[in-house]
């Protein structure tokens, strides 16, 4: 039982996902991170069969990194999405398919455009400005339909995201905790949804980091750490 | 077929053909995207539509693009609508015992050759494993196909000029998908004539 | 002594050389010249065609007035004998053994399409060059095979690095250039290019430099479409997408006339005349273009 949603804005993508792990009606963990950075400016929220999700995220991450190392540049988001789709489409017709649903968000540094892709376990791909996966789909899509607009700014987008979180809390019987990342030209950043102004915190962090840390050419395995809340 | 929804229709006119699809991508009853075009160009005289399971729409599209590109470079000419139909058909039959859930529709204008200086406009359609039919009037496929049959039967007439054909195919598609919960959310129409392709996006009921 | 190390591509000679690879390169230095010039606005490539005599039936072969074209038309084999479209965004000029070249072109086109299939994006230029060179390298190492007798010049565009110009040889080495040349007289052509190349060339300058150097390199003074193939890679003014243009013979003659390099058709050219290569080339012109 999972719930993830994502919003694109002017020059960024926000992805939020629940952090619950368990079986049937029992929750065993409430701080399981389900959002994996899979490139310097690319992150993926995976839902579905628990074992498959982490295996799949790892497989994608390692392959995209291999591409980065071999070719000295990362695969841009549209191509990465096409590649992930191909993996899922080939997997569904194989003997052991991955049962994972994916939200893939990224910022294309060559064209300076944000991208968001909705992918399901069959290999269906949709290129859309806002998306939801799992049980959240039924309540958050309409929330985003109402509040999202083109070229939305960071704080406004985060407001929409919080509205979605509230909606899930209000309408879905299962209790969820959420974590969230923001992807922009500077990379993948984790946002603390409980903080008063996560965007200001992020801006301060990026400003403090920038002069001394030029963007690493090859992402180190622990680079954009999304600490488990 | 009913998992993602979507419909395609093609019609023959006088020295022109038209092909149109809706733009919905759903996951059963939930609408996911309203920009999911199911009609793709091969060249400016030949288009094809792939209604059905969305993952197979992409897979088949990419497969066909690969094969057409190689055909074009090796043969040093454009593929004809008839040859393309057989290419699609054999691509589908390759997966005879685990088929792509797609019912393709092909629409094209063959270019005049020495042997056939006045070729007729061409449309064709297939089932999921590539059995070809080449109607002389119109071809329909997708979740609204039963409704499309009815409306097209009533509206289509022989030898329509490009603008009239556009009106006929647009009305056929819009009115058919309005009665189908799994198709709609906008539509796109291409009318192929000898000197140009007219492409228009249509607004439809967005519910 | 050399005999013992000749027949195997995979064995080093005592001096540490691979003779078969060197012989392949030698074969290419007799082949028709291919020359390309890079500019910020696009790339020009010219290739010398060998004239093989009047009995050769070219009526169905590419190379007539039907050849060439822009964009989608270039797909359909602009195909002369020397310049090929490898993908939407990449053209190549080949020097060496034609049959080897055809097989390489086919391989390259397949790999480019495979990339498009996986990533839904045109293959970056250097990646395709790498793919070809990986294969060429393989033939210098594995037993019982001979290396490809082909050098290539690749011109292309991708979103990451813009316009690029590469050259590769039978050993599988490749390198990027601002202007380069392969085939007959390549060293003299390269030094000419070195003299005349400037960093701020326009596309028109690049075209003219390309053809002028070509005219100095080839034996005959007057150039014409009968002996030359020409192509450019630019960006489409409206869509910003890469646009390959393989010149039709009439277009090329027109261009040559404006540059005052010829362009008029000469009288029948006999075999051996204007073949450019330094001696020895005439015997097997049909094989080595």
Structure write-up:
With 229 residues, chain A is of the alpha+beta class. Chain A has a single domain, classed as Aminohydrolase, N-terminal nucleophile (Ntn) domain (Glutamine Phosphoribosylpyrophosphate, subunit 1, domain 1). Helix content of chain A is 34%, strand content 29%. In chain A, β7 and β8 form a beta hairpin. The longest helix of chain A is centred in the first third of the chain and has 22 residues, at 50-71. Chain A is globular, with a radius of gyration of 17 Å. The model of chain A is unreliable at 217-229 (pLDDT under 50). Chain B is of the alpha+beta class. Chain B has one domain (7-202): Glutamine Phosphoribosylpyrophosphate, subunit 1, domain 1. Helices cover 30% and strands 28% of the residues of chain B. Chain B is built from 4 helices and 12 strands; from the N terminus they run ββββββααββββααββ. Chain B has helices at 54-75, 81-93, 145-155, 162-177; strands at residues 7-12, 16-22, 25-27, 30-33, 39-43, 46-49, 105-108, 122-126, 132-133, 138-142, 187-193, 197-202. A 5-stranded antiparallel sheet of chain B has the order 10-1-2-11-12, with helices on one face. With 289 residues, chain C is of the alpha+beta class. In chain C, strands 3-11-10-2-1-9 form a 6-stranded antiparallel sheet. A 5-stranded antiparallel sheet of chain C has the order 4-5-6-7-8. The model of chain C is unreliable at 266-289 (pLDDT under 50). Chains in contact: A-B, A-C, B-C.
Number of helical elements of chain A: 5
In this structure, how is the largest beta sheet of chain A organized?
5 strands, antiparallel
Unreliable spans of chain A: 217-229
**The first-level CATH class name of chain A:** Alpha Beta
- The CATH superfamily of chain B turns out to be Aminohydrolase, N-terminal nucleophile (Ntn) domain
Protein name (chain B): Proteasome subunit beta
Subunit structure (chain B): Component of the proteasome complex.
Keywords (chain B): Cytoplasm, Nucleus, Proteasome
Subcellular location (chain B): Cytoplasm; Nucleus
